[in-house]
Specification:
The complex is a heterodimer of chains A (115) and B (110). By secondary structure, chain A is an all-beta fold. Helices cover 0% and strands 51% of the residues of chain A. In chain A, strands 2, 4, 5, 6, 9, 10 and 11 form a seven-stranded mixed beta sheet that branches. In chain A, strands 1-3-8-7 form a four-stranded antiparallel beta sheet, with no helix packed on it. The N and C termini of chain A lie far apart (36 Å). In chain B, strands 2, 4, 5, 9, 10 and 11 form a six-stranded mixed beta sheet that branches. Chain B is globular. Classes of the chains: A mainly beta (115), B mainly beta (110). At the A-B interface, strand 10 of A face strand 5 and strand 9 of B.
């Protein structure tokens, strides 16, 4: 399976600022995904990022708040903009890789705290 | 109705016992089903994928799928303390949408 890294692993940010999270994969993948996992809860898909096209956002998530870049087949960034304490969460990127191409593998996550 | 439902637990089993984790899903057209293990403070780790009705075994883990009942389960045989984690059921719906359950917390008691 693909090896996925994320930067930063954690950060503490002030409200009103923005943070960009990087996701790097060791092989070329078509689809990358960004999830949020709030404390004690399951994973919620923010958006799907395909190389060469605009990201597709899930209901409740908008591009102005969570802009995404996907410049090539091994890299993506998620920016959390104009942060508030409600954005405190773990942000995870994942890729599809495996039999039939639909098993998802996750990066180690970025733990964000907004004060 | 939630897309994927799991009992939140906590589920406690003694070491060496069988742990049984259950999941139901709402979209009858779903074709792909997954179990993930998540240790506290870590990201989810894929344990099993299953696509056809019946059982699929991998070591101490067995996934069971019943599409007619819209039910998928995970059995862990000879449970070990290292199996203590939250187990997430995930379903890929038609249209490639991927949904996770809220997870079941498992504790294996030595």
């Amino acid at each position: 399976s693909a090896v996925i890294s994320q930067k930063p692993s954690r950060d503490i940010c002030q409200r009103g600022t923005s943070l960009t999270i990087q996701c790097q994969v060791d092989s070329q993948v078509t689809m990358m995904f960004w999830y949020r996992q709030q404390p004690g809860q399951s994973l919620t898909l923010i958006a799907t990022a395909n190389q060469g096209s605009e990201a597709t956002y899930e209901s409740g998530f908008v591009i102005d708040k969570f802009p995404i870049s996907r410049p090539n087949l091994t890299f993506s960034t998620l920016t959390v903009s104009n942060m508030s304490p409600e954005d405190s969460s773990i942000y995870l990127c994942s890729v599809e890789d495996g039999q039939g191409g639909d098993e998802q593998y996750f990066g180690p996550g970025t733990r964000l705290t907004v004060t | 109705q939630k897309e994927v439902e799991q009992n939140s637990g906590p589920l406690s089993v003694p070491e060496g016992a069988i742990a049984s984790l259950n999941c139901t899903y709402s979209d009858r057209g779903s074709q792909s089903f997954f179990w993930y293990r998540q240790y506290s403070g870590k990201s989810p780790e894929l344990i099993m994928s299953i696509y056809s009705n019946g059982d699929k075994e991998d070591g101490r883990f067995t996934a069971q799928l019943n599409k007619a009942s819209q039910y998928v389960s995970l059995l862990i045989r000879d449970s070990q303390p290292s199996d203590s984690a939250t187990y997430l059921c995930a379903v890929k719906r038609t249209g490639n949408q991927f949904y996770f359950g809220t997870g079941t917390s498992l504790t294996v008691i030595p």
